[in-house]
């Protein structure tokens, strides 16, 4: 009778450990799906974004050196945003002239693209084929997002999707985590 009790106790311990692992794994996957971008830095392999441009702009570029000068958008208290006639939006940390975010919003001109030729309206499958398999998926503001991380150059490139179509593209410095 003692042996049977030990076997049952061992089975219970094994079952409890397995259940705990499943719950923790599920919770971590849910966090990565719904959590902030920095959660994806841990598990996503790096993709080189060294030469990445978005709509002809590059991270680190000085806003005061862009011609024609952008129109300031004062609707944000966290970053200084600037808009261009072609639809491109760039942002800098307050009081600094260095670009830390570039956005191609929905409705941007078709000629505005990433350095690898992905633009608004392109299929998500095209972005995946061009940028590769080392990406993460997350959701924000009701949009599904495919993102790439360059850990060496501290930047992220995200394709915001409307169904299976790219509806917005965002290139960020990881200072914005």
Account of the 3D structure:
This protein is of the alpha+beta class and 177 residues long. Helix content is 26%, strand content 27%. It is built from three helices and eight strands; from the N terminus they run ααββββαββββ. It has helices at 2-34, 39-43, 124-131; strands at residues 71-73, 80-83, 89-92, 99-104, 136-140, 143-150, 155-162, 165-173. An eight-stranded antiparallel β-sheet has the order 1-2-3-4-8-7-6-5. Strand 2 (80-83) and strand 3 (89-92) form a beta hairpin. The longest helix is centred in the N-terminal third of the chain and has 33 residues, at 2-34. The protein is elongated. The mean pLDDT is 84.
Key attributes of the depicted protein:
eight-stranded antiparallel beta sheet; elongated; 177 residues; 3 helices; single chain; alpha+beta
């Amino acid at each position: 009778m003692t042996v049977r009790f030990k076997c049952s106790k061992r089975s219970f311990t094994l079952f409890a450990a397995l259940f705990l692992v499943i719950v923790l794994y599920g919770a971590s996957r849910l966090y990565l799906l719904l959590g902030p971008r920095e959660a994806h830095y841990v598990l996503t392999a790096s993709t080189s974004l060294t030469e990445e441009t978005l709509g002809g702009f590059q991270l680190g570029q000085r806003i005061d050196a862009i011609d024609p000068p952008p129109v300031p958008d004062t609707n944000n208290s966290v970053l200084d945003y600037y808009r261009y006639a072609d639809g491109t939006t760039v942002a800098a940390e307050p009081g600094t002239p260095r670009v830390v975010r570039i956005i191609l919003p929905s409705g941007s001109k078709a000629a505005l693209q990433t350095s690898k030729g992905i633009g608004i309206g392109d299929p998500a499958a095209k972005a995946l084929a061009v940028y590769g398999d080392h990406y993460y998926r997350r959701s924000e503001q009701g949009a599904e997002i495919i993102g790439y991380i360059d850990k060496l150059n501290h930047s992220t490139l995200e394709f915001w999707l409307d169904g299976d179509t790219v509806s917005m593209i965002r290139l960020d410095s990881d200072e914005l985590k």
